[in-house]
Backbone:
């Protein structure tokens, strides 16, 4: 009994330590975002101080609101198009089974294996041709390339779990396939549709590389702003912390809403 | 089943997947054998020229080694930590849901923000770790300015971002294992370690393989954290292959050579994943 008790203590200790490791970077940014620039420079750091919200005011009054709007726009266009295109595709892959469709399902995910800088070159050349560089459309095109296959993959496996008989009885009663999809299958799949929506949002909102390569100023998204400020030589620590904290909030809120389903998405559908 | 319906639904799907997946792949392959520099006139077919000059460059070799160190360090450590956390959460803890939710948080933080957070913590002058705690422990160094420590730091930041993924996959795998086997073993008097070695890990092998493959792909193509924390520096000490790819493609605008590098990386990924899947099957 004593050894098992000792292991229990060790494992709880490890768990607590790792939890500390996970949370400290976030909490430290949160704390520092309420400091003055001078206070962030002090070592040993001040843990107790009078919080001020100047940094947050500067984020939104200093012209960076536009960047957040860009990110929101990209995310919403991305979600709408991803759902519109992936639901029928997932439906057809789930319901009209053949050797070929099985392979398409896997083929769709294969793009994830390629490094982003290779995938972005064709998009870059296309966007350059259509003079769409540095617009949110370019970013959207790149994001959809990742999100649609992913959404199709997740929705397909969810549709497969819904018994065919339910739709078939609707078809016998004279409904078209399209009506069966819209009125029966989609309402029944709401948990997965919500999950896909939120995962698309999180991917789009967090994504740095495509947005960074395809935009330079007008179409800039939040991660690009964070990365370029973090790489500059003059640091305004509270401001950077405040931007980073703001960049984390939307995904946090959404992820907690669909916590249970999100696991499946985060693990690329490897886990049901 | 109505065939007309079938084509009505499948047609667009096939088209979408062809356009979305095939186009980038084919174009990438095509570009990799062209002399193609952006904003310059087309300079013709290059054959394997891009591949040859890439593989012969010392920067490629150096980046390959850096990438190997980064990938092995990050994948192994996050696998071990993820497995340990999954086993602990599977066996011991009350309030599992709360722990799980808190431990998953890093997975949804924008990697750019995560990179900044670590850069801030490790900063030589203002970072609470790099400027205060570590010097107190006797490590008087600019962590991100030293080539070995910088590589270690990006590994730590990557582990921070990616371990939740390992934990989630492995915990789900553990919870899907048949409970009867474990009860039988317990009744027969097998200790926890015996059960872990003889039953849990062998049964978990397929899930472990999936976890490692996904994790490998993410680490191998990782860019965000490195870019935000070190920009490949000091010098090119933390320049991994994706970073080299970005530099080739979007600082020098040599699309041909960047595509060649992407193709090489893709081949490495496919080969290693296949080997891993084969290893698990036998």
Residues:
């Amino acid at each position: 009994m004593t050894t098992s008790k000792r292991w229990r203590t060790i494992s709880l200790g490890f768990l607590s330590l790792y939890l500390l490791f996970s949370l400290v970077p976030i909490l430290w940014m949160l704390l520092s975002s309420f400091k003055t620039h001078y206070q962030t420079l002090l070592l040993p750091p001040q843990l107790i101080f009078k919080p001020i919200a100047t940094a947050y005011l500067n984020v939104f009054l200093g012209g960076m609101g536009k960047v957040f709007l860009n990110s929101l726009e990209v995310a919403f266009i991305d979600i709408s198009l991803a759902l519109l295109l992936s639901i029928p595709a997932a439906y057809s892959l789930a319901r009209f089974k053949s050797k070929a469709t099985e392979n398409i399902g896997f083929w769709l995910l294969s793009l994830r294996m390629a490094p982003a800088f290779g995938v972005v070159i064709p998009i870059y050349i296309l966007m350059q041709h259509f003079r769409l560089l540095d617009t949110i459309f370019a970013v959207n095109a790149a994001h959809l390339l990742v999100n649609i296959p992913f959404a199709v993959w997740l929705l397909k496996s969810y549709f497969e779990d819904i018994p065919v008989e339910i739709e078939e009885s609707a078809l016998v009663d004279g409904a078209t396939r399209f009506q069966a999809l819209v009125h029966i299958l989609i309402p029944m799949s709401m948990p997965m549709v919500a999950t896909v929506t939120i995962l698309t949002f999180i991917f789009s909102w967090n994504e740095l590389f495509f947005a960074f390569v395809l935009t330079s100023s007008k179409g800039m998204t939040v991660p690009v702003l964070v990365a370029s400020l973090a790489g500059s030589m003059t640091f305004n620590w509270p401001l950077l912390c405040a931007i980073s904290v703001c960049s984390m909030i939307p995904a946090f809120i959404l992820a907690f809403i669909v916590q249970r389903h999100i696991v499946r998405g985060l693990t690329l559908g490897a886990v049901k | 089943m109505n065939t007309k319906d079938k084509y009505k639904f499948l047609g667009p799907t096939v088209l979408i997947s062809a356009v979305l997946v095939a186009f980038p792949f084919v174009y990438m392959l095509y570009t990799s054998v062209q002399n193609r520099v952006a904003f310059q006139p087309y300079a013709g077919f290059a054959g394997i020229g891009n591949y040859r000059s890439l593989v012969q460059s010392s920067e490629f070799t150096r980046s390959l080694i850096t990438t190997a160190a980064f990938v092995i360090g990050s994948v192994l450590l996050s696998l071990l930590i993820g497995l340990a956390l999954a086993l602990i959460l599977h066996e011991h803890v009350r309030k599992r849901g709360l722990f799980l939710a808190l431990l998953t948080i890093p997975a949804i933080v924008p990697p750019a923000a995560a990179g900044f957070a670590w850069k801030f913590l490790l900063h030589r002058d203002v970072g609470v770790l790099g400027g205060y705690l570590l010097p107190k422990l006797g490590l008087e160094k600019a962590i991100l300015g030293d080539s070995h420590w910088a590589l270690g730091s990006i590994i730590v930041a990557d582990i921070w971002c990616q371990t939740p993924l390992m934990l989630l996959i492995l915990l789900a795998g553990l919870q899907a294992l048949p409970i009867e086997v474990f009860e039988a073993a317990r009744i027969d008097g097998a200790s926890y370690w015996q059960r872990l070695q003889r039953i849990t890990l062998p049964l978990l092998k397929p899930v472990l393989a999936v976890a490692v493959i996904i994790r490998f792909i993410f680490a191998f193509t990782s860019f965000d954290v490195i870019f935000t924390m070190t920009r490949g520096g000091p010098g090119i000490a933390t320049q991994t292959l994706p970073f080299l790819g970005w530099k080739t493609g979007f600082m020098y605008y040599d699309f041909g050579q960047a595509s060649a590098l992407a193709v090489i990386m893709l081949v490495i990924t496919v080969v290693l994943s296949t080997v891993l899947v084969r290893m698990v099957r036998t």
Remarks:
- Chain A has a mean pLDDT of 85.
- Chain A touches chain B through 91 residues (CB under 8 Å).
